[in-house]
Amino acid sequence: MFMTKNVLKNLFSKSATRLYPAEVRAPFKGFRGMLENAIDVCIFCKKCQLACPSQCLKVDLKARTWECDPFACVYCGVCVDVCPVASLSMRDAYRPVTGEREMIFMQGAPKAVKEKKEKKEKDEA
Amino acid sequence: MARTILPFGPQHPVLPEPIHLTLELEDEIVVSAVPALGYVHRGLEKLCEVRDFHQMIQIVERVCGICSKIHAMCYCQSLEEMMGADVPRRAKYLRVVWSELHRIHSHLLWIGLFADAFGFESLFMQCWRIRERIMDINEATTGNRVVVSVNVIGGVRRDLSREHQTWIGEQLKLVEKEVLALKSTIVSDYTVKSRTQGVGVLTKDQAHQLGAVGPVLRASGWAQDARMLGYAAFDELDFEPVVEVDGDCYARLAVRFREVLQSVDLVRQALTRLPEGEISVPVKGKPNGEIITRVEQPRGELMYYIKGDDTKFLDRLRIRTPTFANIPPLLAMLPGVELADVPVVVLSIDPCISCTER
């Protein structure tokens, strides 16, 4: 008796699961999926490197590089919170699978401020 | 008849994590059990020497894979008290919301695993289906399903918008409806009763003497719950500890089932009373001194001992997790139990071995 009721209910109701990957749920807003750095905005202040609990970030001010080990990153988003210029952000998609252990390496453009100063000094002279 | 020694674990189909029990059997009845721990030790205390106290929040969160939020909350509460931070009320309420959501999903996970331990696969399926709603709430409001990373020293990192609050309310209505639909199965089903009633009994005195905590203690008739201490915003919310008196596996199942509904109610209360205001305050300085903080995890009372010496690295960090406290009671439950019931009894304490070994 109970079983017939359940069988009928299950036959005519929607399934509880999705047919992934044919049907993909839209990501929730604010989901911490991937760490991204807008390297043009980055000032290489190392604040993210110092705050990172898994120590997956390596920032070099002189060489103007920003390096992240995506396999060590725990996606906690602390670096995004401490970033003073908001160059770091979290994208709401999972990192795609890879066959190799690749680092995210970013090279910033050479510093432009010094040249301006030099120019000013030259102008003044 | 000669006694047989039977190793149970560290790899066993019913155990999600490694723990070893040396069972001494007479015929098919357990006479004694000797535990062996240490298969997944990670050495968190050593890690304190190289990670500063802010970074440790994310690390202690990973002590437990199920109730991450509550570990981080306990750690943050300790440091806030040590450094004299005045946490905003809204942050306290938000902590209650997320910690109760963690309790709901942890208990649903456990009911599923417990059902699976005695071969009730469809109950397992249903529980985990309902749990998925809570995981969705976690993901939408905090940015991750399990390791939510919402705590900071001085408050929380994320706020709940009005839309989120209404949406959580709607989802909880569905969760409550679906959990209540399982009530007749969990409470009065023949299969469940025959495998759990009278199995692994822990008497009221034993529970007290052996220092049981959480649902194991409450199932033996003690009305003790660390939430009664009134940490976070629990002092402003109405709740009574859930108590059962039989002390067997069935009572422990009943306690956890009723706690799911209680937590749904607590989340609702916290959302209706959610005050406006800041969600965190900046906390300056470094931890100095000693402190012990206790909070209620889904598995029982969690205790953090922290010692700071005015540097950014903590001097000591000792975590006593509920499973660690519940192992002596487990050893008292096992004698007299049939070998086939050992997995059910072991799972009835909701063992979290990663927690235990830190």
Explain how this protein is built.
The complex is a heterodimer of chains A (125) and B (358). Chain A has 125 residues and is α+β, with helices and mostly antiparallel strands. Chain A has a domain at 27-110: Alpha-Beta Plaits, CATH 3.30.70. Helix content of chain A is 26%, strand content 16%. In chain A, the strands form 2 sheets. Chain A has a 3-stranded antiparallel beta sheet, with no helix packed on it. A two-stranded antiparallel sheet of chain A has the order 1-4. In chain A, strand 2 and strand 3 (65-68) form a beta hairpin. Chain A starts with a helix and ends with a helix. The model of chain A has no long low-confidence stretch (mean pLDDT 83). Chain B has one domain (52-357): Cytochrome-c3 Hydrogenase, chain B (Orthogonal Bundle), CATH 1.10.645. Chain B is 48% helix and 14% strand. Chain B has 13 helices and 8 strands. In chain B, helix 4 (89-117) packs antiparallel against helix 12. The radius of gyration of chain B is 20 Å and the shape is globular. The model of chain B has no long low-confidence stretch (mean pLDDT 88). Chains A and B meet through loops of A and helix 2 and helix 5 of B.
pLDDT < 50 stretches of chain B: none
Query: How many DSSP E strands of chain B?
Result: 8
Order of helices and strands of chain B: EEEHHHHHEEHHHHHEEEHHH
Query: Any idea what the radius of gyration of chain A is?
Result: 24 Å
What is the subunit organization of this protein? heterodimer
What is the first-to-last residue Cα distance of chain B?
Answer: 41 Å
